[in-house]
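Model it.
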Amino acid sequence: MDPIKKEYEYFLVLCETPNISRASELLGMQQGSLSKALKKLEDSFQGKLFVRQGRGLRQTELGMLLQKQILKLKEDWQVGLEKDRESLRQVAGRIKIGSHQITAIDILSKVVPRLNEKYSELQLDMVFKTSNLITRDVIEHELDFGFVANPIRHPNLVIKRIRKDFIGLWTKDLKNHDKVIYYNPDMIEVSKVLKKYKDYKHVPVSDYEVLAQFAVQSHGITILPNPVAERYKKLKNFGEKLLEVDICLIYHVDRPRTHTFKKVLEEFKP
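Modeled.
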């Protein structure tokens, strides 16, 4: 829950990433929609919040003033909301966590049940999305924590590496396999890998667990992250590592460090 409307959240992202194209990518929206939202905000304040500078934007005095007031409002609201519980030093309230399903199986499944059983007043909400969407939601204060692959560097993010995974080719038979390759179309940089296998039949499967089952049941090769493939003893790594992936814990640098936040963070730290 957030006390400010979406246009203000878009404005804050533009303040930190003063480029319409880059900011719209982080927000997961079209450049035209972001420009319209900015124009609507400027009309409501009857003044320019940014001026163009080269390929980017520069805040005006009005823009800097508005940014300061919005950030103060968000901080005061969050601190005030948790003040009573904080004074009692209870681990209570709601924490929202974003994760890819693969990471949830390997990391969250070990920590979340323990936290739920230990703290009766703590509610942990989990959201499963791609790394880019989770990163955007953490930057916008929609999520308290995120577990993402190869996160972008951003001034509003605290990034802590949890582990290093890799993406590789997996098959049941290293010597004899059919020229069919199974893959998840949402996997990062998968198009580069597929170009190396132009003479193979390409079969997209948009779920990693289903994809792993295809690998076990088929005679082709499958592109999989190692945490998924290694759960199936029949699968063998075929060839070199295609891509190394940093699995990281991220949270907003300005997220109030309440007692609950600190306790949950301690559980997640490697």
